[in-house]
Amino acid sequence: MPYELDHVGIAVRDLKASIAFYQNVLGGKLIDRYRSETKGVESEIAIMEVNGSRTELLKPTNNDTSPIARFIRQKGKGVHHIAYHVHDLEKALEDLKTAGIRTLPDSFRVNKHGRRLVYLNPADTEGTIIEYCDYPENTEKN
């Protein structure tokens, strides 16, 4: 199955300053900005595009329960996850299971744009949080 880089997720403390950096220094464009209080997300998210590449800026909205807040406490701000677009998420999940790679419990979700995603267990990926995602037909990539 072909995999291609979809986006990089960056944990930030100051979303406004991070957006300004991507716009003013990197010449990026703000594609979307929204807040998700879904369990396991609990973040304000800004999707930036720089020369065709996407970056998700993730600011925790709940310092007690947000996984982004926990990440920042443990590792500091910076790269949180790398997302790979797969053409068939169900098939990719079957391939992971066959390879003995686990996903994080309860991490499968559909975002506000219809993107389906799941996070691989970093214990099986040398510590990197990897997201697999797909875009069902008739859903715009956002």
Automatic annotation (TrEMBL):
InterPro entries per the UniProt record, alphabetical: Glyas_Bleomycin-R_OHBP_Dase (IPR029068), MeMalonyl-CoA_epimerase (IPR017515), MMCE/EMCE_epimerase (IPR051785), VOC_core (IPR037523)
Protein name: Methylmalonyl-CoA/ethylmalonyl-CoA epimerase
Family to which this protein belongs: Belongs to the methylmalonyl-CoA epimerase family.
Alphabetized GO MF terms: metal ion binding; methylmalonyl-CoA epimerase activity
Pfam short name (any one): Glyoxalase_4
Source organism of the structure: Sediminibacillus halophilus
Gene3D superfamilies: 2,3-Dihydroxybiphenyl 1,2-Dioxygenase, domain 1
VOC domain segment(s): 4-135
UniProt entry keywords in alphabetical sequence: Metal-binding
GO biological process terms on file: L-methylmalonyl-CoA metabolic process
PROSITE patterns: VOC
